[in-house]
Amino acid sequence: MNFQSTRRRGEDGVATVINFLLSNARLVLGVGGAAILGIATLAVKRLIERAGRAADDEKVEQKISGLVSASPPLTQKGREGARINRVAKTTKQQKADLCQPPRSSLETQPNSDPKPKKLQLCVLTLQERLQQFYHSRAALAPHEVQRAQALALDICTEVQGFLHRRHPDMPLGEMSIGGSLLDNLQVVCADHACLLVPLELEASLWRVPGEETLLTHPLHWMVRRLNLEYFPRGRSYWDRYLVGGYLSSEALIRWFNKAVMETVNWPTISSTLDCLVGPALGGSDLRLEIRYLLGKPVFISILPLLREGDVVLTAQPELTSPWVNAWHLSLYPWETRRLVQLDAADGGCRIKTLKILKAVCRLNRALRPLEAPPLANLILHLSDGQSDWSDSRLDARFQQCVTELIGCLERGAVHSHFKPAVNLLNRLSEDQVDQMGFMLYCAASEPEILLMT
């Protein structure tokens, strides 16, 4: 077919080719195959006719060459074309569904000028879309949060009562609920919480110094046993978990797994709470799964921890492996406290931006590996150089976060705001970084596609 000829000749040529294909298809494919081919070729013919009416051939060729040259550099060539087509198709369809005004409003203006119709299609700005996404997906309903908190407190009471009855000599502090559920940072649905189990150490027998860390891992701290020559092993309750003169988080987790997860009468607790409670399968952490007849399950993690001033060390072998006696320095309290202080000082939207980003990453399969710590620290870094975090600038801050994330993925690093030596992206694979970079690259020019989930 010669597409360089005039429009009329081009249309006649398309019709001739279509008729030729259909006449031969009846012989080769039969009536059914010819019908299917006819539908497909008719759709192609209409598409070409619309393209011819919309612009001349030179503009079409320029637009196609522009799209080809704008392909993202972060992905492999084989994956590039398929993903661009998929994102473009999804974006066009969803934008048409979300932005199409009511049918009645178009029918009431039959004599209106056709030029302003393009302006009527998109009725929501990015700022309005972000506000809508925040209230519908990121922010949780108060009754949902209260229900999850009440359930977590009931579990906390049961576990604490069991430990006091079975192990009355164990020096434990008052257990409590912590994490994003308590700090109003949970998004999409209230489905997880942390049960904090503080251990009480004798100040004269234990030392939790910041300088005693693993040299290449500033978040891995050591808890040393002191004065073993004067106070031999056995003077402290926690001496039974010593490994090489240090309190072992892995040994403690193994004991909790046997003493709590495998010993507690979970069927009795299930009948008391009118739900199904039991240890969650898989993983090395202490995690309970609570299921109702209807609704998604709720997971509660049991987290032994040590407090020394404003330092919080948690027993999380999945983060400190293979070092059996290392404890994880949790930066979550520092990050959350700093974000709240900054928003309180200028009435900013940092917390709202963080919750929107968390919801976007949780609802988007490509961005799901991007967890809360890198996002929170990215906002803290941006707050150092950007002073206007008012709610009216939510769209600008959101776009800035997307752009900065692309740069961070290209460098392969988001450094901790409080521990610059810590790279919060070091647990991601190259393929995960590649997929996230492509998705954010597509959203750099049209951030609305991140909200269409």
Automatic annotation (TrEMBL):
SMART domains: Mab-21. GO terms for molecular function: nucleotide binding. The keyword Mitochondrion applies. InterPro entries: Mab-21_HhH/H2TH-like (IPR046906), MAB21L/cGLR (IPR024810), MID49/MID51 (IPR045909), MID51-like_C (IPR049097). Keywords: Membrane, Mitochondrion, Mitochondrion outer membrane, Nucleotide-binding, Phosphoprotein, Transmembrane, Transmembrane helix. It is found in: Mitochondrion outer membrane. Residues 349-436 form the Mab-21-like HhH/H2TH-like domain. One of its GO terms (biological process) is positive regulation of mitochondrial fission. Residues 144-334 form the Mitochondrial dynamics protein MID51-like C-terminal domain. It is a single-pass membrane protein. The chain crosses the membrane at residues 20-44. Residues 90-115 are annotated as: Disordered. Signal peptide: none annotated. Residues 102-112 have a biased composition (Polar residues). GO terms for cellular component: mitochondrial outer membrane. It comes from the Eukaryota. The keyword Phosphoprotein applies. PANTHER family: MITOCHONDRIAL DYNAMICS PROTEIN MID49, MITOCHONDRIAL DYNAMICS PROTEINS 49/51 FAMILY MEMBER. This is Mitochondrial elongation factor 1. It comes from Tetraodon nigroviridis (Spotted green pufferfish).
